[in-house]
Amino acid sequence: MSRLSTNQLSLAYGSRQIVQELNLHVPDGLITALVGANGSGKSTILKAMARILTPMQGGVYLDGKIIHRQPTKEVARHLAILPQNPSSPEGLTVRELVSFGRYPHQKGFGNLNAEDNRMIEWALQATGMSAFSMRPVDQLSGGQRQRAWIAMALAQGTEVLLLDEPTTFLDMAHQMEVMTLLEKLNKEQKRTIIMVVHDLNHAARYAQHLVALKDGTILYEGNPEVVMTPQMLRDVFNIDADVIPDPRTGAPLCLPYGLAEEETAPSTTASAETITTYSEDRIQAMA
After folding, report:
1. Do 165 and 270 fall within a single domain?
2. Model confidence over 93-109: pLDDT tens digits?
3. How many domains would you assign to the chain?
């Protein structure tokens, strides 16, 4: 089942077409990661899904309705987006930032009501930002800032979250902090999350559904154990890599060792049978 989907979606910047006749169905209640090389159309697709970019052809559908024909506030009650490198006015506190998430639910420019305040407090608590609520956003660490912006998205009370490279420019600890939070939101609240991810191992570890794109076209799609293969890495990223099961999680782990060439010797990568065996073990462990 899919509340959010695209049908024959084509996108362009000026005369340059980026995405061509894309048909994508986002699984409900899962984390979906869009992966691909730079310029593959990942962020462009996310912008169209968030109603930021208007299609040149086809459409994005939310609950069976074309999203670009729906009122902005109506869409914002069901779908929230965290863009790349968001910025806030100097001196704005975390709580003030999070309160902006309640705008779609307000009439005119009314004050925050009891429900608004309840959602703000819940979002702060869910993201571990309650202790920082009165601190200026520009005085936070990278990971804390990302959590503050995620809290704002949560305060919207939407069932769907779109995130464009949520770990960009963060160090390893802050990357894990953000990804662990998203995993928690998905598992505990069944949020549908669609995110653009550069780190393939993050995508395979935290997402249950991968969409591998090249030149605005889906080349591979499915669960990480099926999608993350040496052949996919050659076709999509032009790299040679071993794919082995992560010793801790069982998720496929990408170990690149060179740029792909036209003809290469037989690979010594883990076999499909090995990946399948580990995938079954992983599924049983999660059951």
Report:
1. no
2. 999 999 999 998 887 66
3. 2
Co-location of 8 and 64 in the same domain: yes
Alpha helices in the chain (DSSP H): 42-49, 72-76, 94-99, 114-126, 142-155, 172-189, 200-206, 224-227, 230-237, 272-286
Q: How far apart are the first and last CA of the chain?
A: 21
> Is residue 222 helix, strand or coil?
strand
Helix (H, G, I), strand (E, B) or coil at 105: helix
Angle at 260 between CA 254 and CA 262, to 5 degrees: 150
- Residue-range definition of the domain harbouring residue 272: 234-287
Rounded Cα distance, 35 and 19, in Å? 14
- Does residue 227 form part of some domain? no
Q: In this structure, is residue 172 part of a structural domain?
A: yes
pLDDT digit string, tens, across residues 50-94: 999 999 999 999 999 999 999 988 899 899 999 888 888 889 999
What token pair was written down for 172? 């390893």
